[in-house]
């Protein structure tokens, strides 16, 4: 049996579906990313350091792996958290698309902020976003 669908009905259906498509990959409401090391307020002599990344109630997988409740870390350096759209890839947004949970980075002298943001298979924040609190470190 064929049904006639009007243009108005199609437009209404598209508006109903669009918000669901715009939302990021679902994440558990109790998921949390956190920085294991360095601690907030650390002084890093020489500027070379290991960042150790943690995740609760989700798993870590390489980019491109589309599974429920997994993602990969992005380290935000000296920038504000933004959970809209795709996570940029630049000197302030470091991608760990191989599923790394630790990385060696080097920072110039000064005060720096670090924050983790979990990205899905397509480098987009989850819904709700999974991120750590922002910490501050100093390189003398």
Could you provide a short overview of the structure?
By secondary structure, the chain is mainly β. It contains one helix and eight strands, in the order H-E-E-E-E-E-E-E-E. The protein has one domain (7-139): Immunoglobulins (Immunoglobulin-like).
Q: Architecture, according to CATH?
A: Sandwich
* Corresponding CATH superfamily: Immunoglobulins
| Overall tally of domains | 1
Specify the overall morphology: elongated
Rg calculated over all Cα atoms: 19 Å
- Series of secondary-structure elements, N-terminal to C-terminal: HEEEEEEEE
Instruction: Please count the helical segments.
Output: 1
Mean residue pLDDT: 88
Quick tags:
140 residues, mainly beta, Immunoglobulin-like, five-stranded mixed beta sheet, 1 helix
Record the SSE blueprint.
Elements: H1 7-22, E1 32-37, E2 48-56, E3 59-60, E4 70-77, E5 93-95, E6 102-106, E7 110-119, E8 135-139
Parallel strand pairs: 3-4
Antiparallel strand pairs: 1-2, 2-6, 4-5, 4-7, 7-8
Give structural notes:
This protein has 140 residues and is mainly β. The chain has one domain (7-139): Sandwich (Immunoglobulin-like). Helices cover 11% and strands 34% of the residues. It has one helix at 7-22; strands spanning 32-37, 48-56, 59-60, 70-77, 93-95, 102-106, 110-119, 135-139. The strands form 2 sheets. Strands 3, 4, 5, 7 and 8 form a 5-stranded mixed β-sheet that branches. It has a 3-stranded antiparallel β-sheet with strand order 1-2-6, with no helix packed on it. The longest helix is centred in the N-terminal third of the chain and has 16 residues, at 7-22. Mean pLDDT is 88; it is low at 5-21.
């Amino acid at each position: 049996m064929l049904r006639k669908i009007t243009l108005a009905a199609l437009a209404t259906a598209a508006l109903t579906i669009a918000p669901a498509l715009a939302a990021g990959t679902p994440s558990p409401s109790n998921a949390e990313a956190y920085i294991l090391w360095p601690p907030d307020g650390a002084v890093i002599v020489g500027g070379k350091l290991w960042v150790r990344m943690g995740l609760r109630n989700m798993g870590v997988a390489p980019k491109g792996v589309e599974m429920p409740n997994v993602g990969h870390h992005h380290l935000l350096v000296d920038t504000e958290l933004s959970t809209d759209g795709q996570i940029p890839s630049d000197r302030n947004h470091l991608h760990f698309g191989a599923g790394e949970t630790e990385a060696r980075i080097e920072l110039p002298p000064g005060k720096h902020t670090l924050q983790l943001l979990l990205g899905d298979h397509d480098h987009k924040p989850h819904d709700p976003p999974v991120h750590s609190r922002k910490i501050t470190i100093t390189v003398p």
